[in-house]
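Extended Data, record Putative pre-16S rRNA nuclease
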Amino acid sequence: MGAKARFPGVLMGIDWGGRRVGVALSDPSRTLARPLTVLVRDGSGTIPFQEGEKLLASLRKIATDHDVTGLVFGIPYYHLSGDPNPHAPLFLRVARDLSRDLALPLFLHDEGQSSEAAREIRKGHPGRRNSAQSLDHVAAATLLQGFLDAPPEERREVSEGALLGEDS
């Protein structure tokens, strides 16, 4: 792991999915997370980027428009059953590639049950649509808030070498 997340500024939380990507932003003091948008992905619903996917341009515009200084990417390390998620390495690769493409420091956070938490939040607001699409940005805000609330020693930037298994 790299340095602690000490520098100020807005963080962008990402809840990555095969068909949609939820995006959330923190305030500049890194105290509160808020849902921003849901981006629909091109392609077949696979986890990795597809060649020519328009999503990267949308994320780059969000990062520029909101002066984003870091990326918090949710990794589903485990299924709700507690079993390890065999797709976690694919999400790690996407996180690494996205961080590199956006030229932003990367922070990983166990997305745990962010989608389930988003469904619970939505139940408390019955006037809103209950589609899965409307939950992705709420899930992104939930995972970003979890990162912001984590003890400082758990909020560390991930180095490129650590993602590739080259450093500890």
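Summary. Residues 41 and 55 are 6 Å apart (CA to CA).
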